[in-house]
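Could you show me some protein's one-letter sequence and the numbers that encode its backbone in two labelled lines?

___
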Amino acid sequence: MITIGLLGCGNIGHIISKFHGNWRITAFYDLVPAKAEELADLTGGTAYHDFDRFIDAPVDLVVEAASVRATRMYAEQILSHEKDLVIMSVGALADPLFRESIVSRARKEGRRIYIPSGAIAGLDNLKVARISPLSHLLLKTTKNPASLGIPASERTLVFKGKANECIKEFPKNVNVSVALSLACGQDADVELFVDPAVDRNVHEIFAEGAFGEIYIRVNNLPSPDNPATSYLAALSILSLLDNLDNPLVVGT
């Protein structure tokens, strides 16, 4: 049984806390103590009001489901306490200095950092780009204006540029662009649209290379309690957790 500490007890934390596998969430921490206490009561775990006590809890792995800021604040400390780390707010890794720092720390401590596939698909095959670089890599994302807090009466392009710049403007909404860039080993081009006619988060990936062409379209239903988050993103964490100790690994 793998024991897990949950950093961030919001929408995603609520979703993953409802599921059980060969793992169990036993420790909870949130800047709003009541949120951690609520999930602890539901699962029989322990809520911690102090991060230092949380990180000393007897868990094997910490799941970050909080924010880019929380990842930057706590990732290295988590790894230094001999715990593996799942990062949901992968936008934090758009900063190469921070990314190199925590990778170095993980290597030194003999720990692992896991990045869920999040709200997109196809990262397993797109990792071939690290062997045979892509000539074209574009992520086109379309969301309802409400999820970004941007008023719009028609389909509107709100960002066009590189993933590492997009995540700075929309740190809670386009983590998928950074996950895609990390998988491929190159900064993806991003086009972000808002469209009042859509009720789903739509991600389209266009990739070209020596192997040919890949086109992937994912139509994500938003999480019931948070339109800014795709339900698939939370499910991808559950899939990752279920396969941590599986001797048969598919698609990596």
